Amino acid sequence: SSELTQDPGVSVALGQTVRITCQGDSLRSYYATWYQQKPGQAPVVVIYGKDNRPSGIPDRFSGSSSGNTASLTITGVQAEDEADFYCSSRDNSGDPHVVFGGGTKLTVL
Amino acid sequence: QLQLQESGPGLVKPSETMSLTCTVSGGSVSSSTNYWGWIRQPPGKGLEWIGSLFYSGSTYYNPSLQSRVTMFVDTSNNQFSLRLRSVTAADTAVYYCARLLLTYWYFDLWGRGSLVTVSS
């Protein structure tokens, strides 16, 4: 099965821009989905598809992809953006499995 | 508005079988536009996909758990369920049920999660 690799932690100053990346072979074939998870809460989708935001997600969140790497960019980071971020995609093994990245802890300084 | 709610025992003994049910409200478990899924998260760790199922009965399981997992849909009660056999302490986790949209293959709607602890 496929694997998705994320950096364990990223720090960013308040108001700056941060990019969180996700690497994996499945991303050459399928879009990544990005989830934000705050302590004690279920994950929430922030980006899906090419660069789609569900209703209620601020437009400072955006997504992009190139080759085997998907990126989540947060422009003008807010204190409330501090959270764990997970990428996921459909597995490219043939069966419609799902694979998650290990997660990135975003710290807002 | 569709909502999902997990239910089941919070404590399971090692070697036993854990069972969780997800109740779908505000919509139908028999939808043909999505799958349903289970995801778990051990304390302090990341998300792990357990498996997905369609209302017709088609199931797909994480290869690492396939030998111990069973999922099924109960259309009469608008629910779907997870059973995990021969549990160990490593199966201690928050278990989430979620809706898997087929358009971009992502979980757009999640339950609040149910903590299952495996301990004697």
Comma- or semicolon-separated keywords:
heterodimer; A: 109 residues; mainly beta; six-stranded mixed β-sheet; 10 strands; 0% helix; B: 120 residues; seven-stranded mixed β-sheet; four-stranded antiparallel β-sheet; 11 strands
Please explain how this structure is put together:
The complex is a heterodimer of chains A (109) and B (120). Chain A is mainly β and 109 residues long. Chain A is 0% helix and 45% strand. Chain A has strands at residues 5-6, 9-12, 18-23, 33-37, 44-47, 61-66, 69-74, 83-90, 98-100, 104-108. In chain A, strands 2, 4, 5, 8, 9 and 10 form a six-stranded mixed sheet that branches. Chain A has a four-stranded antiparallel sheet with strand order 1-3-7-6, with no helix packed on it. In chain A, a hairpin with a 7-residue loop joins strand 8 and strand 9 (98-100). Chain A starts with a strand and ends with a strand. In chain A, 39% of the residues are buried. Chain B has 120 residues and is mostly beta strands. Chain B is 0% helix and 52% strand. Chain B contains no helices and eleven strands. Chain B has strands at residues 3-7, 11-12, 18-25, 34-41, 48-53, 59-61, 69-74, 79-84, 93-101, 106-110, 114-118. In chain B, the strands form two sheets. In chain B, strands 2, 4, 5, 6, 9, 10 and 11 form a seven-stranded mixed sheet that branches. In chain B, strands 1-3-8-7 form a four-stranded antiparallel sheet, with no helix packed on it. The mean pLDDT of chain B is 96. Chains A and B meet through strand 4, strand 8 and strand 9 of A and strand 4, strand 5 and strand 10 of B.
